[in-house]
Amino acid sequence: MTVLEYAPQGLRQIRSLVVLGDSTAAGLGDPLPGGGWRGVGPLLADALSGTEQVRFANVSFTGARMGCVRTIQLPQALAMAPEVAVIIVGMNDTLRSDFDPERIRADLEHVVSALKAAGTVVLTVRFHDHAKVFRLPGSLRRALRSRIDALNSVIDSVSAAYDTGCLDLDLLPGAYEMSAWSVDRLHPSELGHRLLAQGFASLLAERDCAIPNPVSLTCSGGRQVGTAGHVLWLIVKGIPWLWRRGRDLVPYALSIMLKSFVGPPR
């Protein structure tokens, strides 16, 4: 069956899938018993697999920003000639001092237009309010919220212009349940990744793509992390990560705080 043929029931049978993006796209938060990460990509690939396993590649990596997707990941994705591409990226941009919505827009538009020109069904995400699952001081919360709003505005406009399927995490059922998040409250847990995969599968079903194996929300196959593991992660990974990212975001938050004290210009 070629990529232009359809399943017997009149639905398009997807044969290839690629995931681009950052650490969430890479599967962080959904550890496997033997090591490594699973995440939304393999879960969605399993949902799309019928009599044959979907050809799947994940070109994402931790720390990736929108520019990384354009310059590094896009060529790898296009070489695969995927029928479906999932893009999860942008949060790392919001945490940096050189945050630039217009540059992000140019990079995302380039990525989406190139994939669409290759005949790929493109799926994107717009982000939720991280402050609802990750406690932050007021100034930091406002700083991050304003940047997420700007990022979502870019994603909305590009998604509308190129008719991509866009998964709104703020409206995703269960997205704000603590069980949907890993210990760091920044990456989805196994359940969270399953919610993402289910959401993307629904977007593909709306585009007449076959979903032979609907995504289950019953967690299985992942490695369970106990209390000791949570504490160890916080000490070894969590606090150093917050310190590195805080050095970029805190100055911006302080400027917001200062403006709130000074008031608007007369």
Automatic annotation (TrEMBL):
Top-rank lineage group of the source organism: Bacteria
SUPFAM superfamilies membership: SGNH hydrolase
Pfam families for the chain: Lipase_GDSL_2 (PF13472)
InterPro entries: GDSL_Rv0518-like (IPR053140), SGNH_hydro (IPR013830), SGNH_hydro_sf (IPR036514)
UniProt-listed Gene3D superfamilies: SGNH hydrolase
Record-annotated SGNH hydrolase-type esterase domain positions: 19-195
Name of the protein in its database record: Lysophospholipase L1
